[in-house]
Amino acid sequence: MNESPAVHNTTSWKDAPTRTLSAGGVQFAYRELGPNTGVPVVFLTHLAAVLDNWDPRVVDGIAAKHRVITFDNRGVGATTGSTPTTIEEMAQDAVTFIRARGLEQVDLFGFSMGGMIAQVIALEEPELVRKMIIAGTGPAGGEGIDKVTRISYLDTARGLLTRQDPKQFLFFTRTPNGIRAGKEFLARLEERTQDRDKPITVRAFRAQLKAIHRFGLQKPANLASIHQPVLVANGESDKMVPTTNSYDLDQRLPDSRLAIYPDAGHGGVFQFHQDFVKRALAFL
């Protein structure tokens, strides 16, 4: 895959080449773009996601000012190995990847399951993290997180029955605005036509569901020890990770700010990508 020539080694997410990196016995598949200066932003993906599930508007928007690095978790997409069944192991894998990439400090953007992973990284490896953006997520032991499995299976079945992508139901509200935003988001995910990632396997998907379920049943972590600035974002009616968790995170994190989007669900940051990118850049 040839990189399109552009200033600052920036290319668009649609054309960013997929690279691999060996670390801890795993071949990590990753993509990166944006200027080579400053602290890079490492993106941490959601349940069932591969590289092609990131919204190009969000990636390109943040990569206009910051180096953006995204990778497939162990056992997911084009990354080798077997998928862990705990969020803690996923966090260790992320740290392994970040260090192998030669980075001493990063900003984290974690969406949904990625936001859970980001919290664990900030607690376990505080010196590695400068700032953190977490969206559509909740704390360990958070309200309704142990029900993600049931909701995911129900809406996956609903998607199959109606021949629609389950994300239309899982990420967006069923209002005219939500339905339209869902269709636009899904269309953006198809913009990349070359060098696409492998879809997640059923086995890896089940392992991730188990990890989220366990995280939902855990005792609440002491988030007061996360001293980094955190931007918490969500839609006002997230049915995957109930929005009460976003308010809870904002209350418990010592240095946080909160953005809640109206008439939006789990994928609120994708539905309101222009506002979200603006907020994220101001925050970073």
Automatic annotation (TrEMBL):
Under Pfam families, the record lists: Abhydrolase_1
The protein depicted here goes by the name: Pimeloyl-ACP methyl ester carboxylesterase
Give the molecular function GO annotations: catalytic activity
InterPro entries from the entry?
A: AB_hydrolase (IPR050471), AB_hydrolase_1 (IPR000073), AB_hydrolase_fold (IPR029058)
Domain AB hydrolase-1: residue ranges: 40-269
What is the top-level taxon of the source organism?
Bacteria
